[in-house]
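Write out the bound-state structure for DGJ.
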Amino acid sequence: MNEKIMLAALAACLAGFAGAATDGSASRPYHGDAFLLQTKSTTLALRRENGAWNVAHYGARVESAADVAALAWNRWTGGHKYEQRRPAAYAAYGGDRANGYSFNKWGGLQVTHADGNLSLTLVGEEARTVPDAPGVTHLVLKQRDSVRPFFVTQHFRAYEACDVIETWVELENGEKGAVRLGRMDSFAMDFPLLADAFRFQYATGQWGVEAQLRETPVERGQTVTIGSRSGVRDAFGNNASFMLTIGAASTETTGRVIGGVLCWSGTWNIGVQRDPCDFVEIRAGADTSAGAYVLDAGKSITLPKFAFTYSDSGKGQISRNIHRWARDWQMPAGHKLRPVLLNSWEGSYFSFTEQVLHDMMDGVKEMGGELFVLDDGWFGTGKYARDNVHRDKVGLGDWVVNPEKLPNGLVGLSDEAKKRGLKFGFWVEPEMVNTNSWIFEAHPDWVIREEGRPVNVGRGGSQTVLDYSNPAVRDNIFGQLDALYSKIPDLSYIKWDANADFFNMGSTYLDAAHQANLPFDYTVGLYDLLAKLRAKYPQVDIQACSSGGGRVDYGFLRYADEVWASDDTDARERVFIQWGEGQFFPACAIAAHVTDVPNHQTKRITPLKFRFDVAMSARLGFELHPKNMSAEDLAFAKKCVSAYKRIRPTVQQGDLYRLISPYGNKYAALMYVNGDASHAVVFLWGLARGVMSDYVPPLALQGLDAGKSYTVKEINVVKDKHSRVNGKTLSGKTLMAMGLPVRLRGDYDSAVFELTAK
Ligand code: DGJ
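---
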């Protein structure tokens, strides 16, 4: 939509809205006191009352602005003596003064002004839209404190096609001195009386067991919060995403649900508060537990982005909306098909020679792979060489090849990969150093540390975090990486690892007054470095890894193409981990590797077919030494890779439908459907089955075209087939109504079906 048409449509939306003050001209983007922010199926209705911007509705799309005005909650919620609050578009501590005696002590923004005053009463200018991409409505609400020159600008970008709204806030300190931000949430939206029951689904976990789903009721009077204070591994503990069911419990296909993701890799918190008057506030933003952020006079700060969506047909639609938004808008190259790769880690760990790596390249080439990635252990020199003896104890921060291990360097390896028709990538951990490194010897003040206290360290007894708030540190790392990247003309992939938390809290770069800014400024610095690298090397894909799935977040995925889902590569565990991450992250962004058995983390032995059937539901890769595979296994692998390349567009770019959850069941199933519903892929995994029990019901397929017929073909077949309708052509309508009949035999049996429209 061009800007004129968009504005005309907006003007039409507002016609008849009580109190709306448009000037009647489609050429001036002012919309007065009310605004219906529309997407295909949702509406966020905002209105300005007593000078402040409130929420009138968020949910299913409505067209009549006049009806919204008539039906909107028009009193402060509560009505009695307890905590009177208005349904603010951005709730701030100290606002809500309309009745003369109310004072909001909640909200997502708390400002201690230069003169020591603690409150903020936001008054807003009228709504205005600004030009944006086709299919996006960009609304700007300018607000300021009623008394002091402190400015809050709230942005909303509504994506028509995927029903997602992104929002972020810019704060500007026009006061004479610094202000302190005790809370600085990106989103703090209040919803009055949406329902009488709420349930909060979130993903929690830690190393090796990321993204385990939990759901908890939010009872009246409760605030449910999740967060991370790591500073780096922001998705360990909890993932910065949630689904909030409004009213009756939701399922994959039923119920009213709001879903949200915070796009931030630093410390964060998300909270849903249901107050004793059933007033619901959703807050999400950067965490300030280290202390208030100090914003100097005349300075501005842009807070992280938060993206949210609504579905009245259950959680599945929330996932599909966010996946689509991610591929279309958030990820740098969300539509690029991800390659099948082999990463060297579990195949050799630190113990490799050039020959070992060449053999791995031969193996992955033979299986049909497209990219070879060298993991940890290739760098460091002299006494700090990361060799087979010192392993993870030395060398981080010295991004120079270890010539003992790789006499021909990374360039030599890249050439070898090229000879075999493979692309090449390698591992780095740019935010960390070992205290046993040349860089630390030269710059001990470059790490996050506290004056007068010893530096705490993590992995290898010597690993700690660089101070990325310091531009000199970032410049050094950029310079080192640039020197490496620029020498490898065919470089196509970087695994960006990060295996530490803030073990200390202090910066020698920031002055005493700004110490608590460190967690926020670190992340801003990180993004600055990533943006520079991405701009200079757009062809180099990035994997976000952080001890496995410690960086599964949309802040990092603004610059990266995928995440390493977990260091736990056991296929059974991966069913759960990928299920959890798949709630918000599309399959193209979830790296899943076939590894050896017994599995290195769990010692479990699962069939190779099961390992393929699980990994092929995301971005397929390998982490093993192909030399250890039997001829039979290699032949099967070859068959699977070739099938994966065929189904890859549907898996990586299609719509996800979750059919049977692994939670509470002894099997699980999901499917992907491509854009025009001409192709679908169904995955079924058996987890543990009893005898004469636990029969899998017919899989009630979703997302097919009811008017089309589909030929069912099982792929990755070893011996047994898993459906009696294999090879048959059946109507999409009947397959959705009656389901695909399937059968599993024993533990870790599995099946993959391809459905192709006639
Ligand atoms: C942690 C990562 O998650 C692993 O995949 C591997 O890259 C190691 N670090 C290497 O040190």
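---
The longest helix spans residues 631-653.
The first strand starts at residue 34 and ends at 38.
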